[in-house]
From TrEMBL:
Function statement: Specifically methylates position 2 of adenine 2503 in 23S rRNA and position 2 of adenine 37 in tRNAs.
The protein's name: Probable dual-specificity RNA methyltransferase RlmN
Cofactor(s) in the UniProt record: [4Fe-4S] cluster
EC number: 2.1.1.192
Catalyses which reaction(s): adenosine(37) in tRNA + 2 reduced [2Fe-2S]-[ferredoxin] + 2 S-adenosyl-L-methionine = 2-methyladenosine(37) in tRNA + 5'-deoxyadenosine + L-methionine + 2 oxidized [2Fe-2S]-[ferredoxin] + S-adenosyl-L-homocysteine; adenosine(2503) in 23S rRNA + 2 reduced [2Fe-2S]-[ferredoxin] + 2 S-adenosyl-L-methionine = 2-methyladenosine(2503) in 23S rRNA + 5'-deoxyadenosine + L-methionine + 2 oxidized [2Fe-2S]-[ferredoxin] + S-adenosyl-L-homocysteine
Entry-linked PANTHER family: 23S RRNA METHYLTRANSFERASE, RADICAL SAM CORE DOMAIN-CONTAINING PROTEIN
Domain Radical SAM core: 118-361
Transmembrane segments: none
Record: active site: 112, 367
Residues reported to bind S-adenosyl-L-methionine: 187-188, 221, 244-246, 324
Amino acid sequence: MSENLPLLPLVFDEPRGRKKPPPHLADFDEAGRKELLVKAGLPGFRAKQLSNHYFARLTNDAADMTDLPAGQRDELVATLLPTLMDGIRVQTADKGTTVKTLWKLFDGALVESVLMRYKTRTTVCVSSQAGCGMACSFCATGMGGLQRNMSTAEIVEQVVSANRTMASGDIPGGPGRVSNVVFMGMGEPLANYKAVVGAVRRLTDPAPAGLGMSARHVTVSTVGLVPRILQLAEEGIPCTLALSLHAPDDELRSELVPVNTRWSVDQTVEAAWTYAKTTKRRVSIEYAMMRDINDQAWRADLLGDVLNKFGDWPWVHVNLIPLNEIPGSKYTRSRDEDTDEFVRRLEAKGISTTVRDTRGDEIDAACGQLAASE
C-alpha cells in the first residue's frame, strides 16, 4: 500500500466560506416555492404556474409565460427562476448523438454534463460537485481537488437543459426527452448528499412539481461512502446505486480509491448489498479496466468471490468500463483480450457482466478533462 495516500476529510459536507448560488424553484418542494414567493411579497399560488413552465414547458423566459400577469412576470422569474449557469463550450461526438457541455456557474466554477442519445434511451450524465475531494488516482476531476458542492437546482438544471436540447430536435433522431439520468459526472454525489437527494426528488416528483421521471431510471454513483449508502437505502427512493469499486483487494483499491482506507472492500460491498436488500434494486459495480493494474485474471476471480459472499439472488451486475485515458497518466486502457477474459471469469462465477459502450472517444471524454483545458 502506498505510504503517501492523500488525507481524507472526516466529514463530507459543504466547503465553508463560499457564496451559495441564488435560491431557485428546483431547490424547494411545492410548499417551499410558495413560501419563497410570499416572502418576496408575491402571490404564492403562482409557484405552481412557474413550476409548470420550468419542468413541463422547459422554459425560464418570462416572455414565454403569457399566463402570468405582465407586470409581475419579470419579478416572479427573478425570484424563482434565476439563471444558474451558462454553457461556455460544447463538444459533439458519435455523429452528433453525444454532446458534452462545459458550464460556468455563477461564481466562475466549471462543471460538465454529457447528453448521450441511444436507439432506445437518452441518458444525461450530470455533475454534483465542482471538482472532487476523493483524490482517485486515475481520475481527471480528482486531480484538481474540490472547489464546492453544487446546489440541488444546479444539478437539476443540467437535466432540464438536456431536455431543452432534446426537444429542439437538434440531436439526430428528432425531438425527444431524457429518459435516464446518471450521477457519474464531476464530483462524489454522496459527499454532497443533501443536494443530490433533493435533485433526485425533483427529477422524480410528478409533473409539474418535478420532471416526473422514474426513480428506476436514475443512477447515483459513489466511490463507497458507507454511512451515506446506508442512509440512501432508507430514503424511500428506489434509484439505482452504482458502486465504483475498481479493485477487489484492499491493497490496490486503497491506492486507486483512497477512501478505501476508511472503509474496506468488504465493508463497502456489504453496504451495497444492504442497499440492494432494502430497496430491491440491483446494484451496479463500476470497474474501470486499467492495463496491468487491475485487469489480471486472478483479480476477476477475486472480484467474483467478494461479490458472491453476499446475497442468494442476483443482486449485483458488474459494468466493466474501458478507461478514458488522461494525457500524461500512467493508467492506460486494458487490452481487449484481457477484458474478454475478465468477463469470462466473472460469468463463470455467476456474476452478470457487461462492458460499457464507449462514447465520446474523439473528444475530451473523461469527466474533468474539458474543465481542466479551460
